[in-house]
Automatic annotation (TrEMBL):
Superkingdom of origin: Bacteria
Protein name as it appears in the record: NADH-quinone oxidoreductase subunit F
Protein biosynthesis in keyword set: no
Gene for this chain: nuoF
Pfam families per UniProt: Complex1_51K (PF01512), NADH_4Fe-4S (PF10589), SLBB (PF10531)
UniProt keyword annotations, A-Z: 4Fe-4S, Flavoprotein, FMN, Iron, Iron-sulfur, Metal-binding, NAD, Oxidoreductase, Quinone, Translocase
Family: Belongs to the complex I 51 kDa subunit family.
NCBIfam families on file: nuoF_fam, PRK13596.1
Organism encoding this protein: Chitinophaga oryzae
Length: 426
């Protein structure tokens, strides 16, 4: 089983520095592209590989790049979205801390493909070790001639900077990220125009996830057929999956795209801890719908998880066990989302705190039977198409699916006027 993204990350957690990265073939894809390929050929190769974004939306990367107007003078920008704040998600951190040059080479190649003049790594504020490694990697890349003027003697030049965020979940939304990078309040922008045409400072901009960009050098070196062959399904490549919760071996693993939830849970995460039973999981981070034990054989790719009624998202599973209250579990998530709403649109600003308060009243034994209808109404009114961005619709996914799969728990809270799990949650 090939693990292209993580195979060279040292077991001791140390970062792969420049000379070590070069020793395993690092920057050979950049040399190849600058020597033998036109920018459009790099875009076409990524498009033919059908590399889908690993940040959550799953949009085709090459298609996204193709929307950048190539005949417009002036600067263009490439941004690595490393603002990894989705609860339960820690896959990009592994890549940032373990192999920073893999990301940089991917960013330089992507910049070459769209003819970007400047690139930014937009990094989560809390990733202090990743920030240290990225600063060192960028400095070493400049010294070695992989960044700056006339890279490796070619006509292509690129400047790159590390930008650390201030710890707002909203900055993961690409247009809010652009506003933040411009020094403005991190609120989402109206679309169209899309960032590919009018992004950072009004110039064409591509924003890609860390895991997505880390793939580019491998695809340039090995081709689209190799990339597709790594997967069990039509979605090519491998995927970094994660599992958190009361399992024996929580963690993250690079595995073929399309493994099943059961394989991930039982073979890689070691199954549930003694005394705990699996009740469900958010398959792709906090803003995805619950799946249950009836879905354990669902393939963890974009189409498979969608067909089961959820989303692959970030591919990092958050497990709910039988000794954890589903109402309290969802309340905790809605508390987070209510705090992280940017307040820009009314349904999100007002609806998320209202939802959180209803769930809190259920947990405290003051809930009413009519609260379930109120929660269902919120799940509809804060759903897709009713808000300015995807934050509130994402927040409604765990709520609406919890009401569907664990409704008896909600009803029990109201009937018994208390949380029935309170005595054994610890």
């Amino acid at each position: 089983m090939e693990r292209p993204l993580t195979q060279h990350i040292p077991d001791n957690g140390a970062a792969l520095h420049l000379r070590e990265y070069e020793a395993v073939g690092g920057y050979s894809a950049l040399r190849k592209a600058l020597r033998d390929m036109e920018p459009a050929q790099v875009s076409t190769l990524v498009k033919e590989a059908n590399l889908k974004g690993r940040g959550g939306a799953g949009f085709a990367t090459g298609m996204k790049w193709s929307f950048v107007p190539m005949n417009v003078p002036g600067p263009k920008y490439l941004i690595a979205n490393a603002d990894e704040m989705e609860p339960g998600t820690f896959k990009d951190r592994w890549l940032l801390e373990g192999n920073p040059h893999q990301l940089l080479e991917g960013m330089i190649l992507a910049s070459y493909a769209i003819q970007a003049t400047d690139a930014f790594v937009f990094l989560r504020w809390a990733y202090k070790d990743a920030a240290r490694e990225m600063r060192r990697a960028i400095a070493d890349a400049y010294t070695a001639g992989y960044l700056g003027k006339n890279i490796l003697g070619s006509a292509f030049s690129l400047e790159m900077q590390l930008h650390t965020g201030v710890g707002r979940y909203m900055c993961g939304e690409e247009t809010a990220l652009l506003n933040s990078l411009e020094g403005k309040r991190a609120t989402p922008r109206a679309k169209p125009p899309f960032p590919q045409v009018s992004g950072l400072f009004g110039k064409p901009t591509i924003v890609n996830n860390v895991e997505t960009l880390s793939w580019i050098s491998h695809i340039v070196n090995n081709g689209e057929a190799w990339f597709k062959s790594l997967s069990y399904t039509a979605d090519g490549g491998t995927k970094i999956y994660g599992v958190s919760g009361r399992v024996n071996k929580p963690g993250a693993w690079e595995l073929p795209m399309g493994i099943t939830m059961r394989e991930l849970l039982e073979e890689h995460a070691g199954g549930m801890r003694n005394g705990y039973r699996f009740r469900g999981a958010l398959p792709g981070g906090a803003s995805t719908d619950f799946l249950t034990d009836a879905h354990l054989d669902v393939k963890m790719d974009f189409a498979g998880v969608a067909a089961a009624g959820s989303r692959l998202g970030t591919g990092t599973m958050v497990v709910l066990d039988d000794r954890t209250c589903p109402v309290g579990f969802v309340h905790n998530l809605e508390h987070f989302f209510a705090q992280e709403s940017c307040g820009f649109c009314t349904p999100c600003r007002e609806g998320l705190p209202w939802t959180e308060k209803i769930l809190w009243s259920l947990e405290n034994g003051t809930g009413e039977p009519s609260d379930l209808e109120l929660l269902e109404r919120h799940a509809r009114l804060l759903g897709p198409g009713n808000t300015f961005c995807a934050l509130a619709p994402g927040a409604m996914e765990p709520l609406q699916s919890a009401l569907k799969y664990f409704r008896e728990d909600f009803e029990q809270h109201i009937k018994e006027k208390k949380c029935p799990y309170a005595h054994h949650q610890h």
